[in-house]
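Lecture notes, unit on protein representations.

Consider one protein chain, 723 amino acids long.
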Amino acid sequence: MDVSPILDPLNEAQRAAVTSEDVPALVIAGAGSGKTRVLVHRIAWLCEVHSVSPFSVLAVTFTNKAAAEMRARVESLLKHALGGMWIGTFHGISHRLLRAHWQEAGLKENFQILDSDDQLRLVKRIIQDMGLDDSRWPPKQARGYINARKEEGLRAGQLQHRNDPAARQLVRIYTAYEQECERTASVDFAELLLRSLELLQQNQEILDHYRRKFRHILVDEFQDTNAIQYAWLRTFAGEENPVFAVGDDDQSIYGWRGARIENLHNFERDYRNTQLFRLEQNYRSTNTILSVANALIDNNRERMGKKLWTEGVTGDPVCLYAAFNEQDEARFVAERIRQWVEAGHSRRDDIAVLYRSNAQSRVFEEVFISHSVPYRVYGGLRFFERAEIRDALAYLRLARNPDDDPSFERVVNVPSRGIGQRTMALVRERAVRNRVTLWKAAEEMLQSRSLTTRAAHALERFLQFMSTLEEEIRALVLDAQIDHILRSTGLMSHHGREGSEKAKSRVENLKELVVTARSFDLDNELYKEMLPADAFLVHAALEAGEGQGAIWEDCVQLMTLHAAKGLEFALVFIVGMEEGLFPSDMSKEEPGRLEEERRLCYVGITRAREQLVFTYAESRRRYGADSYYNSPSRFIGELPPELIAEVRPRAMVSTPVRTRSMPGRPGQNSGIGVGDSVVHAKFGRGVVLDCEGAGSNARVQVNFEREGSKWLVLAYANLDKLV
């Protein structure tokens, strides 16, 4: 058997992992070391060399994009399609299990998936129905509590509040939420995992079936698994089926949302006879960038240990810029981007500006606009998250299932049809009182004539319209169903009448929804034996739940460090490298959080292929006040000084210049100092870079946006300070 296509592309460490024995294996895969390649080639090795059926392999990852890429690469290696193979996300595979065993799982056959927005709306309504003040009991906080408990594997009835009034109230909200989901046949993302785990744990016959079926289990990004995902995997594997896990403890950055680095550390304890492999050869970054990353992460204590290296070039030193303030920081970045692109190093879409907090993007957006730097804030609304798309899909969901309360509430008055909040409040009240769906409650109220004539007519027209709509689309193909919904509901004309650019964009998005439905892959094994409309709705819900950014045009990418994980760019700026900002003030209170902040910085560093730039501001406006004498981040102090090139040394001043008395015009006190934004009648806007002298001899150096840097005599410059 010729195994050269499987093994030849691999380095020695990758090959050792791919050809490992049929026992549990843990692969510690450093950034850019080819972890996906190892997973894909491991599957191909099992199938080609050990004659393992691809349908007895379960491969789990965290995003649909990663799952699709893995499937395509396996099919390419094996040279045939693998339609029935189980490669997917935790949520996608859990959904598939529940669809196949809905009765045993205690669900209705037509259960619907609540995305994050639907879930929040439901929690908010429950809080209102319970007569609670949502300023004291914020719906987002309650939703977070519910999801966190589910991710711990806990139902409302299992929780102990120990005479804590706040905890008792949250349990009440959780209980009411569970009842509403049960009544409306709705399942949120956390419920997909919890319900599928309970299905396996409570039904031995089903569990035995899947343990016999999946003899090989592979997991990507293992360091990101939370408590319930780890339990889910252990339940699937049992004592017989080996788990092949790939992860990197140095890239564990999601502790704030439940990921447990302990899962990686405890793997060898929980799986006997584990083989351990390390992938340390990096195929992405220069040697300088890797040396900086290694030096930083060495400061974390509880590591499994590895050191990235490359056979590639040494590369340029890492740049460090000490900005006067956040405006100066953003202008420096904009200028460096201009120089980089003009020199032909890369396109703009291969450049990223990474920051710790979303709030930092505002200044960069303002400066990039003024400097004509095209940019995109990564992580904005995905296609299926946009309001107009959600409206259209809610109509489709309601037509398929009249008991879908979230969809009923979303579209009952969109476009406006005279069904106001008062009417809906009465319908909701009846539904809760009689423990029925909103649709059934509306029918009961029409029969009992308990609404005003106007409200009753409006509600009756809506119910009749939806019943007719279901009949009209029943025999249509998927894209025709959606096209009919857009036109008959008035959604298309509703947005078309507005005439604004935003409205035009919404119309284009709705048209694109029809195109998306037309090209939807119904052959995907995840949607086996489902009707096209139901499969498309599941696809939309799972895609909206991922929170990943879309493909971009030739624009500089602005994003948080968390959002950058898994991406790479030729040029990377990590901005705001100041104590209190990065690492954040909160992280200093406990060592574990500080180490996660350091891992986050490590992730940012290893996104860069060719050039890495750090910036920090000596003065920064935060929370409505200026902070002076900002200290550079401790992470900068942990880097090898010989690999750092300072673009501008930290200003050696004992006090901000603005505190001295400096004449701006003869006989006047200007209060202008280093870092201030100013405007000149001829040269326009600029920032003060330096100053010298006193009294009538005082001079300032100003970097003007249009004219560049100039020294001016302050007494005659007539500079106006911008506040």
